[in-house]
Design goal:
- The complex is a heterotrimer.
- Chain A is of the alpha+beta class.
- Chain A is 24% helix and 25% strand.
- Chain A has three domains: 129 residues, Aldehyde Oxidoreductase, domain 4 (2-Layer Sandwich); 183 residues, Aldehyde Oxidoreductase, domain 4 (2-Layer Sandwich), CATH 3.30.365.10; 328 residues, Aldehyde Oxidoreductase, domain 4 (2-Layer Sandwich).
- Chain A contains 17 helices and 26 strands.
- Chain B is an alpha+beta fold.
- Chain B folds into two domains: 76 residues, Beta-grasp domain (Ubiquitin-like (UB roll), Roll); 83 residues, DNA polymerase, domain 1.
- Helix content of chain B is 32%, strand content 16%.
- Chain C has 13 helices and twelve strands.
- In chain C, the strands form three sheets. Chain C has a five-stranded antiparallel sheet with strand order 4-5-8-6-7.
- Chain C is globular, with a radius of gyration of 19 Å.
- The relative contact order of chain C is 0.13.
- Classes of the chains: A alpha+beta, B alpha+beta, C alpha+beta.
- Chains A and B meet through helix 2, helix 4 and helix 16 of A and helix 1, helix 2, helix 3, helix 4 and helix 5 of B.
- Chain C: Keywords: Oxidoreductase.
- Chain C: InterPro entries: CO_DH_flav_C, CO_DH_flav_C_dom_sf, Diverse_Substr_Oxidored, FAD-bd_PCMH, FAD-bd_PCMH-like_sf, FAD-bd_PCMH_sub1, FAD-bd_PCMH_sub2, Mopterin_DH_FAD-bd.
Chain lengths: 691, 170, 331
């Protein structure tokens, strides 16, 4: 693929540039969805089911409607009918059925947020309740194989296990976890004759527009979605969830008035998805020197009975290590729960927990250093597909990480170091994430008033899109960044794919490169005022020929208190090979952010479902712990120079997710080294170490 | 029920009639259009709503507006002077102490309030004997900034930014 | 939440009279727990009487060598008070290990004592809870119990008291000064909070309308070497799984006196009188410390989901005492 950057004198790409939206964010003047100042808004508060399964027999709304300031109570009786688009999660208020606890069964619209919330408490709901089942287990007899993940078998894993001199065969579990972006899912919906306007907290304005247009039977041109700044998403703001539909249904009842809906933190645990819990049986068969003869993972995950979502935790086992015998299976338990969704590195993140801990167990069993063990099992081509890698530098990451971390002096014996009452150990794990590209983006470049106006409906959820797309456009046009005026976050701009799957920068960036090239071809280097060109994301034939992934290695030092079992992570160091780094400052943030969330996953995160109530009971940020500042001590991210001519014109790989992959395994492996106790479930709380 | 109050917000005086149930956070965001303090949890569990109330950092979500009658409120928007960023804000930009930016105004206000607390000699739970005069090393910054959650995971950079801001202010 | 009236009280007697006369009135202090509960629907007052500007908010020495802490004093001010830091470090440490800098700037001494349990079923009004709705049942049994009691619980409630400060005050033999309709009275800190028994809706022995105006600490010289050890899931900004407040009077290698209280294990700060008795007159060997801890926890009754807590409490208590003794020896 023609190298953009070989042909121009690169200035902006690779430069350490502060965020263009930085001053707005540190002063709090960057506008998030709920903060658009519109005239005379009304406030919407959802009514949620307090049974797990059944139907609503009757609403008694008299007391609620008597609250001063209440405008209307919205239920399935007065909500507009929506088109059936094959997504049961979005069929909001379309029937009286309750499919999970916390489901939206209505809402109150009022002049003030206080009145709306007060009135919701006064709505009495009579249910016809049915029995429910939310118990997640690999022993269920009704597990099924999802259509999107047929069993993948190469060779004979059972035979390899039976004949191998060394085997590992253990079950590892990861819990339900919630994305919990700091900005709760929020919408302002305005329904007018001209159409529907949504100020939305989303990872993709265009997908919101097309889905909402379809649901409400509107011409997409009559739906506009605006999201200049988004307070995190981590997947939950990728696909649509019920709240935005609810807000639009309410706005339709109140034409001309803005309707505001922000979920409470508690509602975030019911309505916008989560990472499915996983149960992973991992099997490794190996020669005495650690060379794998077989590798297998059998994944059980959960889904909602009314909407299927598969956490593809077996995927990384297709990629990581060479072995002639391989078996990857997925089974789903369909439960009376809300549907899971994407959460940072879906598939890879939980799917690199079991296997990477198992590799550590194999290293111990073989007496081979865990870095060396991974090097010995480095494949020549992608194991499951046989395709060559466009680039693969896992070994370089392991070596560089080991050097930076000071791995070489490590005594492999567990429970050897004690400092001030803390047992100390170190561990390693590998990271991987596919280098994707999403179709469908278009970018426009226009020259006006001495500036190049670059427009694409992308979203910045904290990744730095405002900044890095400006840099890419500058180099693609061969101008300084100050000559570029970027506009994103509005569906009136040319179409853009989602910010998801670590594809944003590469998909939008490649599109901008194409548009810039089209602009220069048509208008030359001295364009007239008003000159414009646009282009879509070109196909990349290399995507068929090569396996494309980023890789990394993470090293952790863990302390476990000898008396109390408290776990601390004083050091975490990651080295990544992720192609060309567009902006080292924002890239480092992406890596450390992923690693921090990985640390949080290792030690804290656990959405506790009480099977009697059918919902998460620790549903706030005091009880559902995410890492706090004091949990993160010496945390470093580095990368190696990696030139990949195949992935895209930028030579860049997505970096938003790989940082969370492997972190938890590295920490668990370090805790084993510290204590001699092998933890195979997350979170790794202190009771695992108490004696 | 409603009550008439006066709030001084970022130097400007606002007479306001509020529902007694309205929190300071909602009064700022929904009534005055001052959206720099953010709502992340509404229960004092995340710190996104941190503002300086009569000079001290507090969670705006857990204070009733009616109880703030006559008080002085400073939000992240009001920290800078003459169009310049406050040194803490500049340090957050320089060291990329944020990503999505939603917790950031709260982090910034918290850091400003925290540096005042250290200057006043307040101890912390970072491990130093409480009777000692505090010295703001990284462990102290981490402990003192732990009331501000960041889901993007910018803590390492936040600590660097606060350390840098402290050095500038010195 | 339902609408309520708000009044700023001018004096304690008036505030007490107002609230005592109205069963649906409540005092408002720093608000960090009450506003939280208003939003959750746990409480539903029709009148809030703001007492923050009338309560004393300083620390003053008493003639008998003790100190008096104003109930309106903010947690951060109390933790930073030079006298408290020097003479009662366990109290400073306990305060500083609780909540966050922002919350400590708002929360008051009196309010901290009266904060309510973090039991997730108490906090969710759609679920049964004897503490919130007497007689409705306890959802914690058979549910999520990681933060629940192992000592002194009843079949009606296994909630724990969440305050760190109260654990230190309990160990320090503090006295709570209460203003009621019939004047001022004094309640021993160890008697302020109740065990749940068959009335878990009552957290304390206070009557409706009682206002905490001050907390007094006795002169306790050996408390100058005291400490608070909090064990929690997060390194900061989290409630205790188990905590220990302890002070030890050690001379000539013998423990003369010990003051110990545990947090996170019971419906109230758990004064460890059995452990104190075991330690009195003993030489502080690892064995005697462990025996004292085990004596205290002999009656511990974990439920499904918190089986680890007796071991955690024992180990934390031993470790805290060991550290204190070591500090004494090397002084």
């Amino acid at each position: 693929m023609s190298g953009l950057l070989e042909n121009t004198s690169t200035r902006a790409i690779g430069a350490d540039i502060g965020r263009v939206d930085g001053p707005a964010k540190v002063t709090g003047t960057a506008t998030y969805a709920f903060e658009h100042q519109l005239n005379a808004p009304a406030y919407l508060h959802p009514i949620q089911a307090t049974v797990v399964r059944g139907r609503v027999r009757e609403f008694d709304t008299r007391d609620a409607e008597a609250v001063p300031g209440v405008l209307t109570v919205l239920t399935h009786d007065n909500a507009a009918r929506l088109a059936d688009i094959g997504d049961a999660e979005l069929a909001v208020l379309q029937s009286d059925e309750v499919a999970h606890r916390g489901q939206v069964i209505g809402a109150v619209l009022a002049e003030t947020p206080e009145a709306a919330r007060q009135a919701v408490r006064l709505v009495r709901v009579h249910y016809e309740e049915r029995s429910h089942d939310v118990r997640f287990s690999a022993a269920r007899t009704d597990l099924y194989t999802p259509g999107e993940a047929e069993d993948d078998e190469q060779g004979d894993l059972a035979g390899a296990m039976a004949s191998a001199p060394v085997t590992v065969d253990h079950t590892y579990t990861t819990p339900m976890e919630h994305n919990n972006p700091m900005e709760p899912h929020s919408t302002i919906a305005v329904w007018e004759d001209a159409g529907l306007t949504l100020y939305e907290s989303t990872q993709g304005v265009h997908s919101v527009r097309s889905t909402m247009a379809e649901l409400f039977g509107l011409d997409p041109e009559r739906v506009r979605v605006i999201a200049p700044h988004v307070g995190g998403g981590f997947g939950s703001k990728g696909p649509l969830h019920p709240p935005v539909v609810l807000a639009a249904l309410a706005a339709r009842l109140l034409p001309g008035r803005p309707v505001k809906l922000a979920l409470t933190r508690q509602q975030m645990f019911d309505l916008v998805g989560y990472r499915s819990p996983t149960i992973q049986r991992v099997r490794l068969a190996a020669e005495p020197d650690g060379r794998l003869t077989g590798i297998g993972i059998d994944v059980t995950a959960q889904t909602a009975r009314f909407k299927e979502f598969l956490e593809q935790a077996g995927k990384p086992t297709e990629v990581m290590y060479a072995a002639p015998n391989r078996r990857i299976t997925h089974r789903l338990a369909a439960l009376d729960v809300a549907p899971p969704t994407w959460m940072r590195a879906p598939g890879e993140c939980p799917g690199m927990f079991g296997p990477e801990v198992a590799m550590d167990e194999l290293a111990v069993a073989c007496g081979v250093d865990p870095v060396e063990l991974r090097v010995r099992n480095e494949p020549g081509t992608e194991p499951a597909s046989g395709r060559p890698f466009s680039s693969r530098n896992l070994v370089a990451c392991l070596r560089e990480g080991a050097r930076r971390f000071g791995w070489q002096d490590r005594d492999p014996e567990p429970r050897r170091r004690m400092e001030d009452g803390w047992l100390v150990g170190t561990g390693v794990a590998a990271s991987t994430y596919p280098t994707g590209q999403m179709p469908g983006s278009v970018a426009a470049v226009r020259f006006e008033d001495g500036h190049y106006h670059v427009r694409i409906g992308a979203a910045d959820i904290g990744t730095g899109a405002w900044t890095v797309l400006t840099q890419i456009a500058a180099d693609a046009l061969g101008v300084p960044v100050t000559a570029v005026r970027l506009r994103i976050g509005d569906s009136s701009l040319p179409s853009a794919s989602l910010a998801g799957g670590s594809t944003g920068t590469v998909s939008w960036g490649s599109t901008i490169v194409a548009a810039a090239q089209a602009f220069r071809e048509r208008h030359g280097t001295a364009p007239a005022d008003g000159a414009e060109a646009r282009a879509g994301l070109p196909d990349n034939p290399n995507r068929e020929r090569y396996a494309m992934h980023a890789f990394g290695a993470q090293f952790a030092e863990v302390r476990v208190h000898a008396d109390t079992g408290e776990v601390r992570v004083p050091r975490l160091l990651g080295v990544f090979a992720a192609g060309r780094i567009v902006n080292p400052r924002t890239a480092r943030s992406q890596f450390i952010g992923g690693m921090t969330m990985g640390l949080s996953m290792a030690l804290h995160e656990d959405s506790v479902v009480d099977p009697r109530f059918g919902c998460v009971v620790n549903h706030d940020l005091a009880e559902y712990h995410i890492a706090a500042n004091a949990d993160v001590v010496d945390l470093q991210a580095h990368w190696i120079d990696e030139a990949d001519p195949y992935v895209n014109p930028l030579g860049a790989k997505g970096i938003g997710e790989i940082g969370i992959v492997g972190t938890a395994a590295a920490i668990v492996n370090a805790a084993y080294h510290a204590t001699g106790v092998r933890v195979r479930e997350l979170p790794m709380t202190l009771e695992h170490f108490l004696a | 029920m409603e009550s008439d109050i006066i709030l001084r917000v970022n130097g400007r005086e606002w007479p306001l009639r509020v529902d007694t149930r309205t929190t300071l956070l909602d009064a700022l965001r929904e009534r005055l259009g001052v959206t720099s303090p953010k709502k992340g949890c509404d229960h004092g569990q995340c710190g996104a709503c941190t503002v300086l109330l009569d000079g001290r950092r507090i969670n705006g979500c857990l204070v009733l507006a009616v109880a703030c009658d006559g008080s002085e409120v400073v939000t992240a928007e009001g920290l800078g002077t003459d169009g310049e960023l406050h040194p803490v804000q500049q340090a957050f930009v320089d060291h990329d102490g944020f990503q999505c930016g939603y917790c950031t105004p709260g982090q910034v206000c918290s850091a400003v309030g925290m540096l005042e607390e250290v200057a006043a000699g307040w101890p912390s739970a970072a491990g130093r004997p409480v009777a000692d005069t505090p010295v703001l090393d990284d462990a102290e910054i981490r402990e003192r900034m732990s009331g501000n959650l960041c889901r993007c995971g910018a803590y390492a950079n936040i600590v660097t930014a606060v350390r840098a801001a402290k050095e500038v202010s010195r | 939440m339902n609408p309520f009236d708000y009044r700023r009280a001018e004096d304690a007697a008036g505030a007490v009279a107002t609230v005592a006369a109205d069963p649906r009135a409540m005092f408002l202090g720093g608000g960090t727990n009450l506003v939280d509960h208003l939003k959750l629907g746990i409480v539903d007052p029709d009148l809030l009487v703001d007492v923050t500007r009338l309560l004393p908010d300083g620390v003053e020495p008493l003639p008998d060598g003790g100190v008096r802490i104003g109930a309106g004093m903010r947690n951060s001010d109390l933790a930073a008070d030079p006298l408290i830091r020097r003479r009662y470090p366990v109290l400073s440490q306990a305060l500083l290990s609780g909540a966050s800098g922002q919350l400590r700037n708002a929360a008051t001494t009196g309010g901290n004592l009266l904060q309510r349990t973090r039991c997730v079923y108490f906090q969710d009004v759609t679920m049964a809870c004897n503490k919130r709705r007497p007689g409705s049942g306890c959802s914690a049994f058979g549910g999520y119990t990681r933060y629940h009691a192992i000592l002194g619980a009843s079949e009606h409630c296994i909630a724990t008291h969440p305050s760190d400060m109260a654990v230190a005050l309990s160990a320090l033999d503090a006295t709570v000064v209460v203003q009621g309709t019939d004047g001022e009275r004094r309640v021993a800190m160890t008697e302020l909070h109740r065990l749940p028994g068959d009335a878990p809706e009552r957290d304390t022995v206070l009557r409706h309308g009682d206002l905490i105006t001050a907390v007094e600490l006795p002169d306790l010289p050996f408390a100058a070497r005291s400490r608070y050890r909090k064990v929690r899931d997060r390194a900061s900004y989290a409630f205790a799984l188990v905590s220990v407040a302890a002070a030890v009077d050690l001379s000539d290698g013998v423990i003369r006196e010990a003051r110990i209280a545990l947090g996170g294990v019971a419906h109230k700060p758990w004064r460890a009188t059995r452990a104190e008795a075991e330690l009195r007159g003993a030489r502080p060997t690892e064995e005697t410390l462990r025996a004292a801890a085990e004596a205290e926890l002999a009656e511990a009754r974990p439920v499904e989901g918190n089986e680890f807590k007796p071991t955690l409490a024992r180990n934390t208590l031993v470790a805290t005492l060991r550290d204190l003794v070591e500090e004494e020896r090397t002084r």
